[in-house]
Design brief:
10 strands, binds inosinic acid, Rossmann fold, binds magnesium ion
Length: 174
């Protein structure tokens, strides 16, 4: 597998991130306690960090990590929690931040998990959406881009832990 053409440019990503941050800031304006940003490790770190820099509401960070057993470019749907919440989210506004929604299995697992801790609200902010692959519906309150059913890397997304550092999103090619 090798790095293919650019699908979403660094400029387009940064512009969209600013728009999403404006939407989030508007929707949570005036909240009593900081909004808890909950990026899903590792892929969402670039997105969540850039997003947070444009937010005008106070935020806290917590992180969760999951492994979805699968090989190469296919996720298997068996999701395991590798790192749980460290903050008490009960009664708090939580915004889960995801790099990409593919089948939706990972996100719906995490959503259910966080919901059990009784946050005041729980919403999802996702950069990339592969609608064609959806198995489980996922409520996306904030969405960056719809993309075709292709495996992509960059801006946090990896293939075998490579390419996370790229500032644009690229297609991976055989
Ligand atoms: P889902 O459970 O099928 O929605 O997949 C979610 C996870 O699979 C994402 O958080 C990514 O870690 C990974 N994933 C899905 N599609 C891609 C892709 O195109 N590139 C890199 N990782 C992906
Ligand atoms: Mg991920």
């Amino acid at each position: 597998m090798k790095l293919g053409r650019e699908l979403v440019s660094a400029d387009a990503i940064q512009r969209r991130v600013q728009e999403l941050a404006a939407d989030v800031s508007r929707d949570y304006a005036g909240i009593d306690r900081p909004l808890i940003l909950l990026p899903v490790l590792k892929g969402s770190v670039c997105f969540a960090t850039d997003l947070s820099r444009h937010l005008t509401v106070p935020v806290n960070f917590d992180y969760v990590a999951v492994s979805s057993y699968g090989t190469g470019t296919e996720s298997s749907g068996h999701v395991q929690l590798l790192k749980d919440l460290t903050m008490d989210v009960a009664g708090r506004d939580v915004l889960m931040v995801e790099d990409i929604i593919d089948t939706g299995l990972t996100t719906s697992f995490l959503f259910d998990h966080v919901q059990r801790h009784r946050p005041a609200s729980l919403k999802l902010c996702v950069l990339l959406n592969k609608q064609e692959r959806r198995i489980t519906p996922v409520p996306m309150a904030y969405k960056g881009f719809d993309i075709p059913n292709q495996f992509v890397v960059g801006y946090g997304l990896d293939f075998d832990e490579l390419y996370r550092n790229l500032s644009a999103v690229h297609v991976l090619e055989p």
